[in-house]
Amino acid sequence: MYDDFFFPYEKAKLWTGNMVLLSLSNFLLYASLYMMLPALPLWMVRHWYCSYAEAGAAVAVFGLAMFLPGAFNSYLIDTFKRKSVCLVAMLLFVASSLLYPYVATVGFIALVRAVQGGLFSVITMTTGSTLVIDVTASRRRTDANIAFSWVGRFGMVAGLALGILHFILTGIFHHVVYTCVALGTLALLLILAVDVPFRAPLRTSWFSLDRFLLPRTLWPALNMMMLSAVFGILIAHIYNELFYICILIGFYH
pLDDT value at position 73? Predict the structure, then answer.
């Protein structure tokens, strides 16, 4: 852990080199993920002639699958090197994106989305909840978590706008996939450059609700899920890059 006991608060830097690398990686990762959201269901409806309900259900599997590895997060993070866990999960996440152009059924799309949802859950846990804390002075960790989250939100909206614009201009879903893979690969390379302090492994139970679900956070979590559902409905019905660019401007202000 980063120890700033002998340094006053005003001298503890927030935007260190490692923090910048992690934040840029987070931006690119979210942009890569959210580029796919508007393009994938639209591509399924146009080329497979499936209903919007089927396409939306296949895409929504991602969100449900994010809960699957939650009980094992504590074991993964405390037993293995956090950076290594993040790199492996990110590598598999990026590689699995290449499967989209080669699957031929809605069921296989749902399977790929489920795998990516589980991997993304591990990535977000190892970056936002651990690596950011490990590389930040203890008195600035709250600020670091807030800044890291906001960078991810900007990447989310930028990815939506870029995905819609890219798909409308080219009409080729493969190009969207390859762009997502390129952004994810850049995010992976940035994680490789992060210098994480050594931490001795701990012996923990392989199944634990720690770092996953706390009783006092249940109601705020349900509230956030309802807000996310509203945003998900908008994504499924609004294919206008200007709409998301305006959201991005609103986030800035």
Answer: 75
Question: Given this model, what pLDDT does residue 211 score?
Answer: 61
Other Cβ atoms closer than 10 A to 10: 6
CA distance 65 to 116: 8
The angle, 0 to 180 degrees and rounded to 10, between the axes of the packed helices 173-192 and 141-170 is 160
pLDDT at residue 27, rounded to an integer:
96
Which residue type, as a one-letter code, is found at position 203? R
| Residues in Cβ contact with 223 at an 8 Å cutoff, skipping those fewer than 6 apart | none
Are 89 and 33 in contact, with CB atoms under 8 Å apart? no
Cβ-contact 219, 125 below 8 angstroms: no
Burial 36-49 (b: 16+ CB within 10 A, else e): bbbbbbbbbeeeee
Output the pLDDT for position 193.
Answer: 92
- Which residues of the chain fall below pLDDT 50? 1-2, 7, 9
pTM to 2 decimal places: 0.82
Long-range contacts of 143-149 (CB under 8 A, 24+ apart): 143/14, 144/14, 144/19, 147/14, 147/15, 147/19, 147/23, 148/19, 148/22, 148/23, 148/26
Task: Decide if 31 contacts 159 (C-beta within 8 A).
Answer: yes
Is residue 170 a contact partner of residue 42, using CB atoms and an 8 Å limit? no
Nearest 10 degrees: CA dihedral of 29, 35, 36, 39?
180
The pLDDT value recorded for residue 168 is 74
Q: Helices (H), strands (E): how many in the chain?
A: 10, 0
Residue 151 pLDDT: 92
Total residues found in the chain within this entry? 253
Helix (H) / strand (E) element for 84: namely helix 82-97
